């Protein structure tokens, strides 16, 4: 049983459909949509069966890495998503393992990515084929031939910055192991017209710019060139610089590549010399010069350029100069020379330049071939890579397009042939009944062009060789005659009337219905281009060159080998080489890469549908699909088929134990696929319709989902179960561990709790004891403290006086004492006199002694007063008592008083005892006499006064006559009621008597005395001591006196000074007595 390993398929993760054969429905729109969809998802490759369609992404994609190479290596073609590597791998393995020569045909229009594709194929093959030093050198040479050929054969065009301007076919040769041995390159139809003229916006071949930018000054000098592009007529100026292209760097790359490929230094130099010569040829200019025969002859304007070219190429200058002026035609041993006019001279110059360059290019290809040629004679396996221009339809299509399109017709032809052939062969191989396939065979168009008798190319040749005037018009006429009936040929002038009125068809044109579309060709230039004439004089001049390379490029210039036969025309040459190519390709297994350009802007991400549509049409891709689908759309070997769909049937799922083929039979029966939809081949199942395949795919997808669900289900169940069991087991373990842990923890907790409680109780007990002990201790301490304090207090009390703290107080007291002491001592010295009336007293020395000082003053005063008083005798005391009495009675009341103070109270002014005159009087009075004085008794009648002796005894008041001493009145003191006097300074006073008394009969007394105060005082004292009654003393300036019956008012007035200082008394009327006091 085959090992059933899981394989991926092209059908997995498809964006759109990866193989156009499976496109349903198949039409142009769906085709383009599919391409676009894939292009938008960066899927630039799509298959048509085994054909790869490649859409130019115009940006680098990460799909060519070494990892990708490994991915595609040794994998089946339909296993991975479409890729150029898949095709390369298929081709290489088929070559290596099945010994089939391969060819890889890359087609597409300019800029579609053909050259890139060919390089990718080569690099893939180089990467996967054998390794080793020798092999690597071969690989390197093969790969490095590209830069050289690109430098000389590529140019910037409006469509492509690196457009190949030649067709290239390269055979890579391998040995039986698949190791590369070498290669052969063929080139087709270099666009040599570019050398002398470039369309707008395009450049000449890269090599010119690379040489001028990259060559050293020395090399330039040697080649007699200048770096400035503008110096050269052949280099169009408007687009000399190309973005992103470093010509100088590329020059170095090319020189390096030449070296690797095996060019000798002198060879490389020669090549550059030819390039320089071509460049300089363009600078030769001509001017007309009239000749004698009236014809114009051209002359070279400036011979300097010519001279330099000749030096460079070692050509005799005169020979070359002549060749630009004359044309020699030889016929039958006759030589005819004609002069050239200016136009002819320019034509000759350009023809020379073009020929020189195109022959150089061919030489380069040959030289490279020489280098990369396989060294052994053993049989080789061959892989051919064809990178040729695709179908071209321009506004103006000329000879070149005609040739190119012819080439494409041929390629299509071979494609159809090979595809169908292969298809047929496969059917036969697989033992399937061959069914007729209906498709358009373009052989008829090829025939129209290449038929040897009446094909267009044959007629062109015929026209070119025909004597007489030959023009493009005569050629067209001829075509109109011969091809008129051909159904793919259209011309206005043809005999066929159907185009007579077709205005889209100009008169100077013919139109061919190519397999890829109608193309209108301008007939102009066909003849000329086909002739591709180079005047013999020029080729002979070239042959004469001393420059070996140039000489070798023009063998026909050798006069010894003169050949009068015309050289083959360009058309026939091309036809021949295409025929060779076709023969070559027919022997090989074809692999197609069809390149498509998504836009005209060389821009990424833009997919111009109409442009793509156009390409699809002329590449005939739909045809391609149809051809491919003509029989069976899909085929697959039994094993992978069974592997892919076995899950759709119970018998085959999961394992089929039998041959794969019967497995597939069972499967298809079971699925009830209509019998006409498939056939069983020997090794493959053939499916007629893509629908069937897609149905199978849908079923598979559905089934896969179911299976996935089933697998998921079982897997989930299993997972859950194992998980559950694991959890259960784990749970027990965990539980055990947990219980143990919990128990441990609990025990530990209890233990620690017990410990805590224990420690608390112990602590509590200990604290209790401690508390008691502490209490005891504190009590003891307290007692001790109290005792100590008590003792301390005791001692302190005892010793306080010694304490320093009391020193201040002591000192203070001491100081105070000292101060007081000093104060008193000082006071002792400062004592004022002992006179009580002395007001002096020393000033107080200290404020704090203020009260003491005052007290002292008071005490001292009292003391000295006592002292003063102590001196007095009883007599004196008496006197002072009286004086005191007087003071109490009169002080401040009577103006007379102050004058009385100094007078001592004598009382007995009259010494009655001694005066004998008053002996009688004296005898009459037995009592002690207190007052004996003379007073004036005022007469109440006139106010005049009479002197009288006034006597006061203990009990009586006596009045006696001064002269006689006769007692005139005697009044007991008890009868005296009152004494009146004025307040003024006079000695008048009245003694009022008790009414009704004996003495009162004569009325009251009015006296005046010099000792009024003394008399009034003594009277008062005596009365008080005798009667124990206070005598009323009235002090008033107006008082009434009782005279007998009348009361007289005594009034005291202020007297004038003229009456002297004695008061006078005057009687005013009966009732008024006026006393004037001075
Ligand atoms: N596979 C590709 N990946 C990235 N860029 C590409 C690819 N193919 C082509 N290109 C781009 O397109 C340009 C033109 O491709 P080229 O192969 O020179 O076109 P052709 O030979 O068909 O005229 C290249 O220079 C390159 O920039
Ligand atoms: Mg190219």
Q: Topology, pairings included?
A:
Layout lengths: L27 H13 L4 E4 L2 E5 L10 H7 L11 H15 L3 E6 L6 H15 L4 H21 E2 L7 E2 L2 E8 L5 E9 L17 H9 L2 H6 L24 H15 L3 H17 L4 E5 L5 E5 L2 H11 L3 H7 L2 E6 L2 E6 L2 H31 L8 E7 L11 H32 L12 H8 L5 H10 L6 H11 L6 E2 L18 E6 L2 E6 L3 H6 L4 H8 L4 H6 L16 H17 L2 E8 L12 H11 L1 H9 L4 E4 H8 L14 H12 L6 E3 L3 E4 L2 H110 L7 H24 L19 H21 L3 H17 L6 H5 L17 H6 L4 E10 L6 E9 L2 E6 L5 E6 L3 E6 L6 E6 L11 E4 L3 H16 L4 E4 L2 E6 L2 E9 L9 E4 L4 E6 L1
Parallel strand pairs: 2-16, 3-12, 3-16, 24-27, 29-31
Antiparallel strand pairs: 1-2, 4-5, 6-7, 6-12, 8-9, 10-11, 13-14, 14-15, 17-19, 18-19, 20-21, 20-26, 21-22, 22-23, 24-25, 25-26, 28-29, 30-31
Bound molecules: adenosine-5'-diphosphate (ADP) and magnesium ion.
The site of adenosine-5'-diphosphate (ADP) has 18 residues, from helix 4 and strand 5.
Rg, please?
A: 86 Å
Q: Low-confidence segments, ≥5 residues, pLDDT <50?
A: 1-6
Bound molecule kinds, no repeats: adenosine-5'-diphosphate, magnesium ion
Could you estimate the helical fraction of the residues in percent?
40-55%
Structural class: alpha+beta
What gap, in angstroms, lies between the N and C termini?
A: 191 Å
- Rounded mean pLDDT score: 86
> Within the largest sheet, what's the order of strands?
23-22-21-20-26-25-24-27
Largest sheet, strands/sense/barrel: 8 strands, mixed
Provide a count of the helices: 31
Number-wise, the strands total: 31
Shape: elongated
Q: What portion of residues belong to β-strands? A: 15-25%
């Amino acid at each position: 049983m085959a090992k059933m390993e899981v394989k991926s398929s092209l059908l997995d993760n498809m964006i759109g459909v990866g193989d156009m054969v499976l496109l349903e429905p198949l039409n142009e729109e769906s085709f383009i949509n599919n391409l676009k969809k894939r292009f938008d998802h960066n899927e630039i490759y799509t298959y048509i069966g085994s054909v790869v369609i490649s859409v130019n992404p115009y940006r680098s994609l990460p799909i060519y890495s070494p990892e990708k190479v490994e991915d595609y290596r040794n994998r089946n073609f339909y296993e991975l998503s479409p890729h150029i590597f898949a095709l390369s791998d298929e081709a290489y393995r088929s070559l290596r393992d099945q010994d089939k020569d391969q060819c890889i045909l890359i087609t597409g229009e300019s800029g579609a990515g053909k050259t890139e594709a060919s390089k990718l194929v080569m690099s893939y093959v180089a990467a996967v084929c054998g390794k080793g030093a020798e092999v690597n050198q071969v690989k390197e040479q093969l790969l490095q031939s590209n830069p050289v050929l690109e430098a000389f054969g590529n140019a910037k065009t409006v469509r492509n910055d690196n457009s190949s301007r030649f067709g290239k076919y390269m055979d890579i040769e391998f040995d039986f192991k698949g190791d590369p041995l070498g290669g052969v390159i063929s080139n087709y139809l270099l666009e040599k017209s570019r050398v002398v003229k470039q369309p707008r916006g395009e450049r000449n071949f890269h090599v010119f710019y690379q040489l001028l930018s990259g060559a050293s000054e020395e090399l330039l000098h040697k080649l007699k060139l200048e770096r400035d592009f503008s110096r050269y007529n052949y280099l169009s100026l408007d687009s000399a610089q190309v973005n992103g292209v470093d010509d100088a760097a590329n020059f170095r790359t090319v020189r390096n590549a030449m070296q690797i490929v095996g060019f000798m230094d002198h060879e490389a130099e020669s090549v550059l010399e030819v390039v320089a010569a071509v460049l300089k040829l363009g600078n030769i200019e001509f001017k007309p010069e009239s000749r004698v025969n009236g014809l114009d002859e051209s002359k070279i304007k400036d011979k300097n350029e010519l001279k330099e070219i000749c030096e460079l190429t070692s050509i005799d200058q005169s020979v070359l100069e002549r060749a630009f002026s004359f044309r020699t035609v030889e016929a039958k041993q006759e030589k005819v020379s004609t002069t050239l006019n200016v136009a002819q001279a320019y034509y000759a110059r350009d023809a020379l330049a073009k020929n020189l360059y195109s022959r150089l290019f061919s030489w380069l290809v040959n030289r490279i071939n020489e280098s990369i040629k396989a060294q052994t004679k053993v049989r080789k396996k061959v892989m051919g890579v064809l990178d040729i221009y695709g179908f071209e339809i321009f506004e103006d299509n000329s000879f070149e397009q005609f040739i190119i399109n012819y080439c494409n017709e041929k390629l299509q032809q071979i494609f159809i042939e090979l595809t169908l052939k292969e298809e047929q062969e496969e059917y036969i191989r697989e033992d399937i009944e061959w069914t007729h396939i209906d498709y358009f065979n373009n052989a008829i168009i090829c025939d129209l062009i290449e038929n040897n008798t009446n094909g267009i190319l044959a007629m062109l040749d015929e026209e070119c060789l025909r004597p007489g005037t030959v023009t493009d018009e005569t050629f067209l006429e001829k075509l109109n005659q011969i091809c008129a009936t051909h159904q793919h040929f259209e011309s206005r002038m043809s005999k066929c009337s159907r185009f007579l009125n077709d205005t889209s068809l100009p008169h100077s044109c013919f139109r061919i219905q190519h397999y890829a579309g109608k193309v209108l060709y301008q007939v102009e230039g066909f003849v000329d281009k086909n002739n591709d004439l180079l005047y013999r004089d020029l080729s002979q001049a070239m042959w004469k060159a001393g420059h070996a390379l140039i000489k070798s490029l023009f063998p026909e210039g050798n006069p010894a080998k003169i050949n009068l036969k015309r050289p083959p025309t360009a058309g026939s040459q091309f036809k021949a080489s295409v025929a060779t190519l076709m023969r070559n390709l027919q022997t090989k297994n074809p692999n197609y890469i069809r390149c498509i350009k998504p836009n005209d802007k060389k821009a990424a991400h833009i997919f111009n549908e109409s442009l793509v549509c156009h390409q699809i049409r002329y590449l005939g891709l739909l045809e391609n699909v149809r051809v491919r689908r003509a029989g069976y759309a899909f085929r697959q070997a039994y094993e992978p088929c069974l592997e892919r769909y076995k899950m759709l049937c119970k018998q085959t799922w999961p394992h089929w134990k039998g041959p794969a083929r019967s497995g597939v039979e069972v499967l298809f029966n079971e699925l009830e696929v209509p019998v006409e939809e498939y056939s069983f081949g020997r090794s493959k199942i053939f499916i007629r319709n893509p629908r069937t395949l897609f149905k199978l795919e849908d079923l598979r997808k559905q089934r896969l989902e179911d299976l996935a669900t089933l697998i998921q289900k079982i897997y989930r169940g299993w997972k859950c179960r194992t998980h559950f069991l694991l959890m259960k087991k784990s749970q027990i373990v965990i539980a055990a561990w947990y219980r143990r842990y919990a128990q441990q923890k609990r025990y530990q907790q209890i233990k620690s709790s017990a410990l805590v409680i224990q420690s608390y109780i112990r602590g509590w007990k200990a604290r209790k004891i401690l508390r008691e002990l502490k209490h005891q201790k504190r009590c003891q301490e307290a007692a001790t403290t109290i005792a100590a304090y008590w003792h301390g207090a005791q001692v302190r009390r005892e010793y306080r006086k010694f304490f320093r703290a009391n020193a201040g107080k002591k000192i203070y007291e001491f100081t105070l004492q000292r101060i007081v002491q000093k104060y008193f001592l000082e006071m002792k010295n400062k004592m004022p006199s002992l006179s009580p009336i002395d007001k002096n007293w020393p000033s107080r020395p200290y404020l704090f002694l203020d009260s003491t000082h005052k007290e002292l003053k008071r005490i001292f005063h009292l003391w000295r007063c006592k002292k003063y008083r102590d001196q007095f005798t009883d007599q004196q005391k008496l006197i002072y008592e009286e004086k005191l009495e007087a003071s109490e009675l009169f002080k401040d009341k009577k103006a007379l008083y102050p004058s009385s103070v100094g007078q001592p109270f004598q009382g007995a002014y009259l010494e009655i005892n001694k005066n004998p005159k008053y002996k009688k009087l004296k005898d009459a009075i037995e009592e002690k006499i207190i007052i004996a004085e003379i007073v004036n008794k005022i007469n109440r009648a006139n106010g005049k006064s009479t002197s009288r002796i006034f006597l006061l005894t203990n009990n009586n008041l006596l009045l006696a006559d001064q002269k006689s001493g006769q007692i005139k009145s005697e009044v007991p003191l008890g009868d005296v009621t009152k004494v009146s006097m004025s307040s003024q300074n006079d000695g008048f006073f009245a003694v009022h008597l008790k009414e009704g008394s004996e003495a009162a009969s004569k009325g009251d007394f009015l006296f005046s005395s010099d000792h009024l105060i003394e008399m009034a005082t003594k009277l008062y004292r005596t009365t008080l001591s005798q009667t124990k009654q206070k005598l009323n003393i009235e002090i008033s300036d107006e008082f009434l006196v009782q005279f007998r019956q009348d009361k007289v008012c005594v009034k005291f007035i202020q007297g004038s000074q003229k009456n002297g200082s004695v008061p006078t008394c005057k009687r005013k009327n009966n009732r008024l007595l006026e006393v004037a006091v001075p």
